[in-house]
Specification:
Strand order of the largest sheet of chain B: 17-19-18-21-16-20
Shape of chain A: globular
Shape of chain B: globular
Strand order of the largest sheet of chain A: 2-1-5-3-4
CATH architecture of one domain in chain B: 3-Layer(aba) Sandwich
Structural class of chain A: alpha+beta
Number of helices of chain B: 19
CATH class of the largest domain in chain A: Mainly Beta
Mean pLDDT of chain B: 94
Number of strands of chain B: 21
CATH class of one domain in chain B: Alpha Beta
Oligomer: heterodimer
CATH superfamily of one domain in chain B: Dimethylsulfoxide Reductase, domain 2
Radius of gyration of chain B: 24 Å
Radius of gyration of chain A: 21 Å
Largest sheet of chain A: 5 strands, mixed
Strand content of chain B: 15-25%
CATH topology of one domain in chain B: Dimethylsulfoxide Reductase, domain 2
Distance between the termini of chain B: 25 Å
Chain lengths: 307, 540
């Protein structure tokens, strides 16, 4: 039996003066990338509904009073988009400066480094970051006394088991982990945003440790974290020891050895050892998601085999 | 799955046993689908259901027949489909006629209103998926259980259409592929019957040998042959039967009594400890090949690292053993083996390694290199020319073999937990923060009646053996039902208790239904639960 596909409508628009044509329902971001514009993104993930949280992908759209978040705005017929206007560039630069001054972003990957360089972002101009101390909620009604540090979300990393590390010094509150744990993928709802304003942070229920929480250790939050705030323990420890070397890692695609669902796994191998397992976001069985067995259960391979 | 209107999860705790499949169920629920769970336990899957039918272990056929009668009496059966695509309806309708809602409730323990609701919603839904796992198949009447579910799909036309189907969830990465390759006693690759001389001839020509026309033995028949002293030598590849088979004491006797046993495995398993020869195998991550998933999707698995020490690929071991036995076998690559499969199995013919890469796997049947693979089966039943019609099966209900009694009043069932897998040979080797080690799960009511608290060690006794285990109170259990996971045979070997009664059609043992009693102080036969199943109502 064949299914009748819905006819595809094409939408025409202009990006930085160049004509683009995309299927209806595409986003402004997709149109910009189609036109070759290298727009930064952080909270955007291809398998998830846009969270509209980070604001690093803003562009100018003619006729729109405010700048437009390109990741979520749908492309309209005849739209005239400018990615490089002074207003858009200034906005993206300031947002990246504020995020990078408040959060440690050295594990956010080479793309962000490039985007910040191109935008000439200087997060250091707000002063050196605050040292990492346990975060305490502010006294209601009182402001922090001014100091020489840039306000930051720095706090000691949470290492509570053998599988995960949560280092919220690197968190930009993009909501991707919350959405992946929640209704977008896992539907476990083990984490949410607690607190308001600058005190907002990702938290388990009542801020209990991860083993005490509802977490099922699928690692689907790690899979979508754009800044390395959430990491597998092996990767975290190797980075701490200075032995994590992504450029030397080979990635081999295979299928999980446990149940019969057929989840695709990417094995990241460094110096002959598996150091991390992920799933491709573009495979329709997993959409990048796994369960605890798929993401961590492979360790038997490397467990000093008895035979 | 995402686009269906109704999902029935029957004897399946997919939230824990098939978590990424359950993501697709959740998408359907978030799209507005209704869900019914049929399970003795109110599992983490059942908690997502609109209605949970807390069924007594082993009464699935009774429930299915009751649902069928209600669907027919309400006029919700799909008359056009039944006439067009099926045979045997009249006889089937007559066979379910005694299964009134009242009788169904008495036998299954499910309130009649809940049975009626499932019947009406399943019968009335535009599309519906009926999914099951080992809760259906690990019984002495496993095949009849499956036939009873197939009957429901034929009755309502919920098969062979987009969004409607029968969904058996395979428990292991490649159990589907094993069957497809003919790792069944009566089948050759592509499910060709060994009794068919013409089909057999095709394989004999390629393999250069003669193939016996009579079926071999499935595992339960092998057990009987070992008991009778007819089967004297065993070659075990990637299995741990000492701990995975029902009635572990009988297995110990059988395996110890063999003249010769070879075990080929990644680890020195409990079974391997009994072997005369152990061949160290290379495993997942270290070898190339394919796995076939529950949805008939053949996907490539690839070597990423070198195996440790002397471990070798299974293909190489098998070739070496064949050569040692005097046969001139080469050691083919995984792709060469696969291409031989393609040359002999029409349903795999279009699946070159290149195409499997390109498409992220292909679903059989895929008979030619320009064929896109097959999303779902049995669509032919809706076409003008249906081909062979689908047959209704008259199935009778029989209770579990291990009957409850005054001496053994509690029903013990088994299953998996989220982070673990089978006998734990693989899953026991990573540091899961979610691990629940070997425990006996009891309902709060039964624990109260026996007078045991969480963490207290009790003795669990069946007609075959006994073990000691700490108690864990589990509110997902109804009174009269206990649960143990199968993952920790070194601490709590649940197969000391299980019965090796097996289904004559499939050879599967009845892991799901054991009669036990609990002794609260180890060694003292006091305070055992007297309550049996089947005398309650009102648990939805």
């Amino acid at each position: 039996m064949t299914m009748l596909e819905e006819p595809i409508t094409i939408v025409s628009a202009r990006v930085d003066g160049a004509d683009v044509e995309l299927p209806a329902g595409s986003t402004v971001l997709e149109a910009c990338r189609e036109a070759g514009a290298d727009l930064p993104t952080l909270c955007y993930g291809p398998t998830m509904t846009a969270a509209n949280a980070c604001r690093v992908c803003m562009v100018e759209v003619e006729g729109s009073r405010t700048l437009v978040p390109s990741c979520s705005r749908k492309l309209d017929e005849g739209m005239e988009i400018w990615t490089g206007s002074e207003r858009a560039v200034h906005s993206r630069r300031l947002v990246m400066e504020l995020l990078a001054s408040a959060s440690e972003l050295d594990r956010a990957g080479p793309d962000l480094e490039r985007w910040m360089g191109e935008a000439r972002a200087r997060p250091g101009r707000f002063g050196p970051p605050e040292p990492a101390t346990p975060r305490v909620p502010p006294d209601p009604g009182h402001h922090h006394p001014p100091n020489t540090f840039a306000a930051s979300v720095a706090e000691p990393p949470k290492i509570e088991d053998e599988l995960y590390v949560r280092d919220y010094s690197r968190c930009i509150l993009c909501y991707r982990c919350v959405d992946a744990c929640g209704v977008e993928h896992q539907n476990t709802f083990a984490i949410a945003v607690a607190g308001r304003g600058f005190d907002a942070r990702i938290s388990t229920e009542f801020d209990v440790t991860l083993p005490e929480s509802a977490c099922v250790y699928c690692g689907n939050c790690i899979a979508v974290c754009p800044t390395g705030a959430l990491a597998g323990r092996i990767e975290w420890d190797m980075r701490g020891q200075g032995t994590w070397d992504e450029s030397s890692q080979e990635v081999t695609r295979t299928v999980c050895s446990y149940c019969g669902v057929g989840c695709n796994l990417d094995l990241h191998v460094q110096e002959g050892r598996i150091v991390s397992v992920t799933s491709p976001h573009d495979h329709d069985v997993t959409l990048g998601n796994l369960c605890i067995k798929g993401r961590f259960g492979w360790m038997y391979v490397d467990s000093g085999r008895g035979v | 799955m995402e686009d269906t209107d109704l999902i029935v999860m029957w004897g399946s705790n997919a939230r824990e046993a098939h978590p990424i499949f359950f993501h697709h169920v959740l998408k359907a629920l978030n799209n507005g689908a209704r869900m019914f769970a049929v399970d003795p336990r109110r599992t983490s899957s059942a908690r997502w259901a609109d209605v949970w039918l807390g069924i007594d272990v082993g009464s699935d056929i009774a429930l299915s027949n009751t649902l069928a009668r209600e669907i027919i009496h309400a006029g919700l059966h799909h008359r056009e489909f039944i006439t067009h695509a099926t045979t045997g309806f009249d006889e089937y309708a007559e066979s379910v006629e005694p299964w009134t809602l009242q009788r169904g409730e008495e036998v299954t323990g499910v309130p009649r209103d809940a049975i009626r609701q499932l019947a009406h919603e399943y019968g009335g839904a535009p599309t519906a998926q009926l999914c099951w796992t080992l809760g259906i198949t690990e019984h002495h009447n496993a095949t009849d259980n499956v036939l009873a579910l197939i009957n429901l799909a034929l009755l309502t036309g919920h098969v062979g259409r987009y969004g409607s189907g029968l969904v058996p969830l395979r428990g292991q990465n490649n159990v589907q592929g094993g069957g497809d390759m003919g790792a069944l006693p009566n089948r050759l690759p592509c499910f060709h019957d060994v009794a068919d001389a013409e089909l057999r001839g095709k394989f004999e020509e390629v393999w250069g040998c003669s193939i016996p026309g009579e079926p071999g033995k499935h595992i339960s028949l092998m057990h009987e042959a070992m008991d009778a002293g007819e089967l004297r030598a065993l070659y075990v590849i990637g299995e741990n039967p000492l701990q995975s088979e029902a009635d572990a004491r009988a297995m110990q006797r059988r395996l110890s009594g063999l003249d010769f046993m070879v075990v080929q495995d990644l680890f020195l398993t409990a079974t391997a400890e009994l072997a005369d020869v152990v061949l160290p195998a290379a495993g997942w991550g270290e070898v190339d090949g394919t796995f076939t998933s529950s949805e008939r999707r053949v996907q490539r698995v690839r070597k990423a690292i070198d195996p440790p020490g002397d471990a070798r690929d299974d293909i190489e071991w098998i070739s070496l053993v064949a050569r040692a036995l005097g046969h001139d076998w080469p050691t083919p690559s995984a792709e060469e083996v696969w291409n031989e499969v393609r040359s002999l199995s029409w349903m795999h013919e279009g699946m070159t390694y290149e195409r499997l890469d390109e498409h992220g796997g292909l679903q059989w049947p895929c008979p030619s290199v320009d064929h896109p693979g097959t999303l779902f089966l049995h669509g032919r039943l809706w076409e003008e020319d249906t081909g062979p019609k689908a047959r209704f099966s008259v199935v009778e209900w029989f209770p579990p073999v291990d009957a409850l009694s005054a001496e053994f009043p509690l029903r013990l069932t088994t299953g998996r937990r989220l982070d673990s897998y089978n006998t734990g040979v693989q899953s026991g080797r990573y540091p899961s923060p979610r691990r629940i080690h070997g425990v006996l799960d009891l309902s709060p009511e039964d624990a109260g009646e026996i007078g045991v608290a969480e963490g207290e060690t009790v003795k669990v006794v069946s007609r075959r053996g006994s073990l000691e285990a700490p108690v864990r109170i589990d509110r997902s259990l109804r009174p009269g039902l206990a649960f143990m996971a199968v993952h920790f045979p070194d601490d709590t070997d649940v197969n000391q208790l299980t019965i090796d009664a097996w289904d004559p059609k499939s050879g599967t043992a009845e892991f799901k239904a054991t009669a036990v009693r609990i002794e609260s102080q180890v060694g003292a036969p006091t305070g055992s639960v007297r309550r049996g199943q089947g005398h309650r109502s009102g648990h939805t």
